[in-house]
Design goal:
By secondary structure, this protein is of the alpha/beta class. Among the domains are: 117 residues, no CATH class; 187 residues, Glycogen Phosphorylase B (Rossmann fold, 3-Layer(aba) Sandwich). The strands form three sheets. The protein has an eight-stranded mixed β-sheet with strand order 4-3-2-1-5-6-9-10, with helices on both faces. Strand 9, helix 14 and strand 10 form a beta-alpha-beta unit. Helix 6 crosses helix 8, helix 7 packs across helix 13 and helix 17 runs parallel beside helix 20. The radius of gyration is 25 Å and the shape is globular.
Length: 580
């Protein structure tokens, strides 16, 4: 075992788990690598405690101010420092529309307008308050940093930032970067109570000024560097390079130790992902408050979308600029400084390159889930009968699989969305399929990792069966796959089965619009019409099925060898020193 090398696999949200666990098992099976799971934040470990604790692999868990081994973490002696707040938007989210406040109002005052009618007013009030506080806090932060810089001269080090951070900059960029450097150099972690109230959050916002969260970023970067330098892994594996998950600091810490970093993607994204998510959120508007200043100083961080100029948070902009880790396309996830991205198919290779990721970084491997697809497709009928026996259900001529989407009403109802609540959406999706299927099809529901089974058990009454198994074990057994703007649509394409991509939230992503085997629908009427044709019109079904089979043949490679190709990529990265 002396020749076995450690590989770190980072997990930040529950939907990262499946891909990273599969990669860990692959590394372990090679006999050459020892996978070590790194959970950041600890809440992702706690929320999936059974799966994470039972995994045989070693692990480190981020507690909010340091990393602990799995054994140390499970002793619980450190828990005087609660970690509940380290999940993004934890606590604050319960006050957002459709996340608690409007529900409580409706229960207390049933005569009030519906939640959907209240959303616009509530969001407007919250947005105004946040904008005012951020503007005042920004002024406070800049003045404080300016005063501090008069007392001490900032001297950058290799650990702090690039020696050329201020070279070839205009006066505005130099001023903002110097302000950031001063704030980074002087920032210390403010310990707050485990349950942070409004007063504590306000104090935290003002103490951080424009750079909200900077002290947390600094602590994470320092501790990540210590962990990587101390453990000396030969490779870092990430499910995505995402500025909001501090992936840039993980990659920087890795490269400072001459360790390569590779992305094994868990989803499919381009610049539309953030553009649509942040479109109506004031802190991302380039023409509001301090954002005007940053848009002028760093125009390459501005994205034009639907006639509106958007910009990312100042702390991300200045952190990346100061440490020389600006993504090739700031609004594109996975366009950062990783050494390679493992493309799941030829379709995905082309997709990444079209999105703007450098061609030399894209390495075709296939997805590990495709190896399971390969095994299931070879004996589909056998596995289908076994599924029916496990869940005590009758498998009919056709199997319609619905990949239930997560609740995206947290920030309010999106423009054009035909539903007032998440419950209305999922009841419609399942109800239509069940009523159209009748005795001709078996309807299966698979839950997104963020959905709790107890919250949707009512759907069983509509004539569908909830199957709590990994989606890649179910898609090969289906005749039609229904999803909502999901990365799992790729599985349906690989299997050559018709897919209905229902844009219920009106994101208008263009990921699959060029594919004839994926039926794009945006309205309730079209959803019912297309599904009715796929279920009851054999000619229409055959047309879509043949188109999907042609796509699978041209763009996908399901041959059972994805794991072999992925290991070859890991071997190449660790032997060639790409991270140096």
């Amino acid at each position: 075992m002396s020749n076995v090398s450690e590989v770190f696999l980072f997990i930040t949200i529950p939907t990262h788990l499946r891909v990273m666990m599969d990669a860990a098992d692959l590394l372990q099976s090679s006999g050459r690598y020892l996978p070590v799971m790194v959970y950041y934040p600890s809440a992702v470990f706690d929320q999936n405690h059974a799966n994470c604790q039972q995994m045989p692999h070693e692990a480190f868990i981020w507690t909010g101010n340091r990393f602990l081994s799995k054994v140390e973490y499970l002793t619980g002696t450190w828990r005087t420092d609660s970690t509940a707040r380290w999940l993004p938007n934890k606590g604050l989210s319960r006050w957002l529309p459709n996340k608690g406040l409007d529900t409580r109002l409706a229960r207390t005052f049933p005569f009030l307008p519906t939640p959907a009618d209240l959303v616009s007013a509530i969001r407007h009030v919250i947005s105004m308050a946040v904008s005012v506080v951020r503007f005042v806090a920004g002024a406070y932060g800049i003045v404080r940093s300016a005063l501090f810089s008069l007392k001490a001269t900032f001297k950058p080090t290799v650990q702090q930032g690039s020696q050329s951070a201020l070279v070839n900059r205009n006066w505005l960029q130099r001023f903002l970067l110097h302000t950031f450097a001063t704030e980074w150099d002087s920032s210390t972690r403010r310990v707050l109570p485990s349950e942070i109230g409004f007063r504590q959050r306000l104090i935290r916002l003002f103490s951080d000024g424009l750079f909200s969260g900077l002290s947390d970023q600094k602590r994470f970067f320092e501790e990540s560097s210590k962990l990587i330098q101390g453990q000396k892994p030969v490779l870092i594996v990430l499910p995505e390079a995402n500025l909001f998950y501090n992936s840039q600091f993980v990659i920087r810490a890795a490269h400072l130790s001459a360790t390569p970093a590779v992305i094994v993607p868990f989803t499919i994204v381009n610049t539309l992902e953030w553009a649509e998510a942040f479109f109506d959120i004031p802190p991302y508007q380039a023409n509001k408050g301090w954002n005007r200043l940053f848009a002028r100083a760093f125009p390459h961080w501005v994205l034009e979308h639907k006639g509106r100029r958007l910009i990312l948070p100042p702390a991300h902009i200045l952190g990346c600029e100061h440490f020389d880790m600006v993504p090739a396309i700031p609004w594109l996830i996975n366009s950062g400084d990783s050494d390679a991205i493992a493309a799941e198919s030829h379709f995905m290779s082309d997709y990444y390159i079209r999105a703007g990721i450098e061609k030399e970084k894209v390495r075709f491997t296939g997805a590990l889930s495709d190896d399971r697809l390969f095994a299931l497709l070879k004996e589909r009928d056998l596995h289908l009968r076994a599924l029916g026996e496990r869940f005590g259900m009758l498998i009919r001529e056709k199997v319609i699989l619905i990949g239930l989407p997560p609740d995206q009403f947290g920030g309010g109802k999106r423009r054009g969305c035909e539903f007032d609540s998440y419950e209305d959406l999922i009841r419609f999706m399942v109800g239509v399929v069940a009523s159209l299927s009748g005795n001709q099809a078996t309807v299966l529901i698979n839950l997104h990792p963020r959905i709790k089974h107890a919250d949707v058990v009512c759907l069983s009454a509509l004539g569908a069966t909830i199957i709590d198994e990994p989606i890649e074990r179910l898609v090969p057994l289906a005749n039609v796959y229904v999803a909502v703007a999901s990365a799992t649509i790729r599985l349906g394409i690989s299997c050559g089965i018709p897919v209905v991509n229902y844009d219920a939230y009106q994101y208008d992503y263009d990921d699959y619009k060029c594919l004839a085997g994926v039926c794009e629908v945006k309205s309730m009427l079209d959803y019912e019409s297309v599904l009715g044709a796929l279920i009851n019109d054999q000619l229409f079904y055959s047309k879509i099925h043949e188109a999907q089979m042609a796509t699978a043949s041209d763009l996908c490679l399901v041959d059972g060898k994805a794991g072999e190709r992925l290991l070859n990529l890991f071997d190449h990265l660790t032997s060639s020193g790409d991270g140096a």
